[in-house]
Amino acid sequence: MRRALEDPRIEARRRDPIPDEVDPAIEALVHDIIGKVADRWTMLLLEALEEHGTMRFTQLGRAVGRISQKMLTQTLRQMEEDGLVRRTVHPVIPPHVDYALTPLGQSLSAAFCGVWIWVEAHHAEILRAREAFAARASAAGAKSVLGA
């Protein structure tokens, strides 16, 4: 993933104290957006469009890999509804449709770039934790089989 530019408005808000009260409308929207964008396909489409720019439907499908046309269509429609992608239909035969991130989509991509950087910084710790968990689960499974 390409490192996105920081959004100065977001960086300024990070330094603000946590408010005592949260606007219920903002909280509801946060939960809605997280539910929509934290899925596998939205994240991968954000990444593909951020890295490659404007892409056609079939190019996006290939870039993401193992996504059905139905899921690709649903995810792109959802992203368009939320203002994250711009869908452009070119009046030619056969129809030519392409997708690009909007400025809003680019800013979301920048926010998720932090997750990528976090994983890069902590990948060894995550792998160690997973190995330790698997070893404990395996040992616990062996004990239950032996009747301990």
Automatic annotation (TrEMBL):
It comes from the Bacteria. One of its GO terms (molecular function) is DNA binding. InterPro entries: HTH_HxlR, WH-like_DNA-bd_sf, WH_DNA-bd_sf. Residues 23-127 form the HTH hxlR-type domain. Keywords: DNA-binding, Transcription, Transcription regulation. The keyword Transcription regulation applies. This is Helix-turn-helix transcriptional regulator. The lineage of its organism: Bacteria, Pseudomonadati, Pseudomonadota, Alphaproteobacteria, Rhodobacterales.
